[in-house]
C-alpha cells in the first residue's frame, strides 16, 4: 500500500511539473500573466490582489491599479508601491499602449483556438536602429518607442527627439491612445450631450478629446441588439474641465485602461498588431 501511495505522489508531481508556470519576469514584463479573462469576462467580476501599500481600498483608483498590475499592463515602482500620483513619462505611455495592441486584449471575436494563447500571439518587435536621438538601444522602452513611431502613434517632440523622461499631458496620452483605436466600431456620439470644452486644447488633440469624453451610441444590426451609452473614457472634474494640459498620473492611466473594457466596442486598428 505504501509503495502504491508513493507511486501516486510521484505521478502527481510529474504532472504538476508539466503544467504552465505563471511568473513575472524582471524588467517590468508580465509574460506569464494570463490575459484571457479580458476576452471572456468583465473586469469588475474579478478580484485582484493588492500588493501596494500606497493604494488604499477606499481610493477612486484602487481597482484600476490592482487590475493593470495583475494583467501586466503596468508594474509597480517597487514591490510594495504603485505611486498612483506619479506622472507617466512619454516612454511609459507608449509601452503601455504597445502592450495593449500586442496582446489583442480588446478582441472579443477571436477564434476559440486563439483565446487560450492570446497573450503569446504578439510581442513588441525588436529593432536594430532607432529613429530618435535620445532613445538608446537596449533600454526597457527602446523597442516600444520605435514601434510607436513606425505605427504613427507618436512623432516625438521635434528636432529628432522623442522626449525620453518627459511627463506626458492628458491630451497627449489621449491622442496616442486614439491613434490605435478603431473608431469606426464605436458608432456615433451626440455633440450636444456635453458642453463645449472651455479650456485650452491643442489642435491635434481636439478630435481625440471629443471622442473619449462622450458616450457613444451604436445601432444594432440584423444579428445584434442595439447598444447605447457606451461609456466615456474620461470625465470632467467638479469645475467642468478636463485639465488637458496637466500631466497624466499613473492612477489616471490605470482608470482609462479599465474604462476601455466594460463594453466590447473598443477595437484595435489591425495594423497596430500585425
Descriptive account of the structure:
- The protein has about 270 residues and is mainly α.
- The chain has one domain.
- The chain is about 30% helix and about 5% strand.
- The protein has nine helices and two strands, in the order ααααααααββα.
- It has helices at about 1-20, 35-40, 60-70, 90-100, 110-115, 140-150, 170-180, 205-215, 250-260; strands spanning about 215-220, 225-230.
- It has a two-stranded antiparallel ribbon.
- A hairpin with an 8-residue loop joins strand 1 and strand 2 (about 225-230).
- Helix 3 (about 60-70) crosses helix 9, helix 4 (about 90-100) crosses helix 6 and helix 7 crosses helix 8.
- The longest helix is centred in the N-terminal third of the chain and has 17 residues, at about 1-20.
- It starts with a helix and ends in a 15-residue tail after the last helix.
User: Mind telling me the C-alpha Rg?
Assistant: 21 Å
Multimer state: single chain
Low-confidence stretches: 11-45, 105-121
**Portion in beta strands:** under 5%
Total helical elements = 9
Average pLDDT, all residues: 76
Residues in helix, %: 25-40%
Biggest sheet layout: 2 strands, antiparallel
Task: Please report the distance between the alpha carbons of the first and last residues.
Answer: 57 Å
Shape: globular
Whole-number tally of structural domains: 1
Strand order of the largest sheet: 1-2
Briefly note the structural class of the backbone.
mainly alpha
Q: What's the SSE pattern?
A: HHHHHHHHEEH
Work out the number of β strands. 2
Amino acid at each position: 500500500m505504501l509503495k502504491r501511495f508513493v507511486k501516486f505522489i510521484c505521478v502527481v508531481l510529474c504532472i504538476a511539473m508539466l503544467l504552465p508556470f505563471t511568473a513575472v519576469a524582471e524588467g517590468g514584463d508580465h509574460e506569464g500573466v494570463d490575459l484571457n479573462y479580458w476576452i471572456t469576462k468583465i473586469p469588475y467580476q474579478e478580484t485582484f490582489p493588492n500588493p501596494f501599500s500606497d493604494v488604499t481600498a477606499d481610493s477612486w483608483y484602487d481597482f484600476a491599479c490592482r487590475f493593470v498590475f495583475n494583467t501586466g499592463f503596468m508594474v509597480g515602482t517597487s514591490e510594495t508601491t504603485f505611486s498612483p500620483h506619479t506622472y507617466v513619462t512619454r516612454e511609459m505611455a507608449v509601452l503601455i499602449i504597445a502592450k495593449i495592441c500586442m496582446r489583442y486584449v480588446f478582441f472579443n471575436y477571436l477564434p476559440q483556438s486563439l483565446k487560450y494563447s492570446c497573450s503569446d500571439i504578439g510581442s513588441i518587435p525588436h529593432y536594430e536602429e532607432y529613429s530618435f536621438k535620445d532613445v538608446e538601444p537596449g533600454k526597457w522602452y527602446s523597442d516600444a518607442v520605435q514601434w510607436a513611431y513606425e505605427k504613427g502613434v507618436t512623432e516625438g517632440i521635434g528636432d529628432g527627439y522623442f522626449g525620453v523622461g518627459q511627463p506626458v499631458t492628458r491630451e497627449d496620452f489621449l491622442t496616442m491612445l486614439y491613434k490605435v483605436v478603431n473608431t469606426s466600431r464605436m458608432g456615433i456620439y451626440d455633440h450636444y450631450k456635453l458642453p463645449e470644452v472651455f479650456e485650452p486644447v491643442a489642435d491635434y488633440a481636439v478630435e481625440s478629446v471629443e471622442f473619449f469624453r462622450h458616450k457613444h451610441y451604436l445601432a444594432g444590426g440584423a444579428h445584434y441588439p442595439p447598444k447605447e451609452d457606451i461609456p466615456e473614457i474620461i470625465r470632467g472634474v467638479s469645475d467642468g474641465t478636463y485639465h488637458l494640459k496637466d500631466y497624466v498620473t499613473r492612477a489616471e492611466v490605470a482608470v482609462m485602461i479599465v474604462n476601455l473594457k466594460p463594453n466590447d466596442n473598443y477595437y484595435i486598428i489591425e495594423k497596430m498588431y500585425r
